[in-house]
Design a protein that fits this description.
By secondary structure, this protein is α/β, with parallel strands linked by helices. The protein has four domains: 104 residues, Barwin-like endoglucanases, CATH 2.40.40; 139 residues, Vcp-like ATPase, Chain A, domain 2; 96 residues, 2-Layer Sandwich (Potassium Channel Kv1.1, Chain A), CATH 3.30.710; 127 residues, Cytochrome b5-like heme/steroid binding domain (Flavocytochrome B2, Chain A, domain 1), CATH 3.10.120.10. The chain is built from 18 helices and 23 strands. The strands form seven sheets. The protein has a six-stranded mixed β-barrel with strand order 3-7-4-6-5-8. The chain has a four-stranded mixed beta sheet with strand order 12-13-9-15. The protein has a four-stranded mixed beta sheet with strand order 20-23-22-21. It binds protoporphyrin IX containing FE. One of its GO terms (molecular function) is metal ion binding. Keywords: Heme, Iron, Metal-binding. It holds the Pfam family Cyt-b5. InterPro entries: Cyt_B5-like_heme/steroid-bd (IPR001199), Cyt_B5-like_heme/steroid_sf (IPR036400), Cytochrome_b5 (IPR050668).
């Protein structure tokens, strides 16, 4: 049975994909022999050096030199030293049966690989992705009763495994949901109609990065044609893509193609009609004007979380009223765009700062609030170290301050917007290290993108051992992802201190 394991994550800068460990001038290719693995894809440190990766690189994105759409995320390991994590020698690449299928490779083949470099200067995030779901292990023409699969659970699992990984059309993934192994084949990406493309969204029609904002549309084989027709009735290109997909499906090897028993998808999302973009919302200002704004741009406005996350019943465009006037909101948008692009904020005149500060407070846009405060000379950075006692006192005074892997986060004002409800956090997560709880409740990892808004600093190094840690530690994979997502944390040499406490707890549990 083919297996699927989480892909190693590559670090990202300002929302765009980067291979920061690459020395862009000198990276080359390498001829590698394919070997089998059941775990994450691996190359050795020697091979990494040959490919031009830095000596401390832990992961990389590879593609076939002959040009494949599929991008392979590999971990770099120190050969034998990795023991249980898998072994790979110099000149080899260890990949799963599913990845071999995706790259049209098999064990023993010698192939030219090179580092994948994403397109420069344009966002690489997928706006939408479409996939066909079948049951792995069924038999063709099976009379077995169709299996019901909740698309929400499937989507969560997809995001858990592939969040910020590159997905390509025709790539297949094996996902375990509700005790079943399901085969998901990517049938299309970024299927925006011309109008939506004109909005300026990056348009890579065959691959891109899966993010929390990617719209995911899944179907089972029987419903594919209907959904394709509904989405783009006059799009010849897409029809051809579907025909190619169908042909590609026929090429699936026996082990994967056994997926023919019926799957009934529950809660599957319907595509919006042509011309309607789910990636935008209509922001209505307090003087009656409205702006179409990319949902992803507004994400740092934490006061809008519920409004932005709400699934749109019916097909009318989402409308988000804000208590900000048009001129000020225009400037807020300039700030949000700079924030999304990782650029310096626009230099607003001092007289503009008070209304902008008020808008920032209303929107819960902390970076703008801080920017205005700095400009007005009201404060410098809010970031600092906290003693454990200080956090307890803030909570005793009615606040909701979390400790997550040593980070100190103030979610007090955001509680009513928390998608998991306003009660669970104060009831369960205060005055302890909530990283395991956080891992368990947030499979989709969407929660990561909010952390920066709530970050006020770190628990003082000398107080870290005072913070009660749960019996069950967070997984090392989760901690790794968390650290990848929080490069902006205050630098503490013990940043992974709690991680090592958890490792100790894990070790003592094993013995
Ligand atoms: C900074 C802290 C937090 C952030 C930014 C956050 C964010 C989110 C987000 C975005 C979701 C919906 C998407 C998803 O399921 O991943 C969510 C759901 C949820 N959160 Fe949180 N959360 C935080 C802390 C916590 C804590 C400490 C707990 C538990 C004590 C918790 C419990 C839940 C629950 C139960 C759900 C619903 C899960 C489901 O429906 O499957 N959250 N949270």
């Amino acid at each position: 049975m083919p297996s699927w394991t989480p892909r190693p994550r590559i670090s990202f800068v300002s929302g765009s994909l980067a291979q920061p460990q690459i020395d862009a001038e000198s990276h080359g290719g390498a001829q590698l022999v394919v070997i089998d693995t059941d775990g994450p894809a691996l190359i050795s440190r020697g091979t990494a050096a040959q490919l031009g990766l830095a000596a401390d690189a832990t992961c990389a994105l590879l593609q076939l030199a002959s040009g494949s759409d599929c991008v392979l995320a590999v971990s770099v390991v120190d050969g034998e030293a990795e023991g249980g994590a898998g072994h790979v020698s110099d000149g080899q690449v260890a990949i799963t049966a599913v990845q071999q299928y995706n790259l049209h490779l098999s064990v023993g083949m010698l192939e030219d690989f090179r580092l994948f470099v994403p397109p420069a200067g344009v966002p690489f995030e997928l706006v939408d992705v479409e996939g066909e779901v079948t049951l792995l292990g069924g038999t063709e023409g099976s009379t077995e009763e169709a299996v019901q699969v909740d698309v929400r659970a499937l989507t969560r699992e997809l995001l858990r495994l592939c969040f910020r990984a590159v997905l390509a059309v025709n790539e297949v993934l094996v996902l375990a949901v509700g005790g079943r192994q399901l085969l998901l084949r990517i049938t299309a990406t970024n299927t925006l109609d011309a109008e939506a493309q004109d909005e300026g969204v990056a348009y890579h029609c065959y691959r891109g990065l899966l993010t929390q904002d990617t719209q995911i549309y899944l179907h089972s084989p029987g419903t594919q044609q209907a959904s394709a027709a509904a989405a783009a009735p006059e799009d010849g290109g897409r029809q051809q893509q579907h025909a190619e997909n169908a042909a590609a499906a026929e090429l699936l090897p026996q082990s994967l193609a056994a997926a023919r028993a019926g799957v009934v998808l529950l809660n599957a999302r319907q595509r919006p009609p042509a011309g309607f973009s789910r990636s935008s919302v209509k922001v209505v200002t307090n003087d009656g004007e409205w702006f179409p704004v990319k949902r992803v741009l507004l994400r740092p406005c934490i006061a809008l979380t519920t409004a932005l996350r709400a699934e749109q019943a019916g097909l009318s465009e989402a409308e988000v009223p804000v208590d900000v006037d048009t001129l000020t909101f225009d400037r807020v948008l300039l700030f949000l765009e700079a924030l999304a692009l990782g650029q310096e904020p626009p230099s607003f005149g001092l007289h503009l700062c008070p209304p902008l500060l008020a808008a920032a407070r209303w929107l819960g846009l902390r970076p703008l609030e801080e920017h205005c405060q700095e400009r007005l000379g009201e404060s410098s950075s809010r970031l600092r170290f906290y003693s454990f006692d200080e956090v307890r006192q803030l909570n005793a005074a009615g606040g909701c301050w979390l400790i997550l892997d040593g980070m100190v986060l103030d979610v007090t004002c955001w509680l009513p917007e928390h998608p998991g409800g306003s009660k669970i956090i104060p009831r369960q997560a205060l005055n302890l290290d909530c990283s395991r709880m956080f891992e368990l409740y947030h499979a989709s990892r969407e929660s990561f993108v909010f952390l920066r808004q709530f970050y006020f600093g770190e628990i003082a190094p000398e107080d870290r051992d005072l913070v009660p840690a749960p019996d069950e530690p967070p997984s090392s994979e989760f901690l790794q992802q968390l650290h990848d997502f929080t490069p902006w944390r205050l630098q503490v040499e013990v940043a992974t201190h709690l991680g090592s406490r958890h490792a100790a707890a894990r070790a003592s549990k094993r013995t």
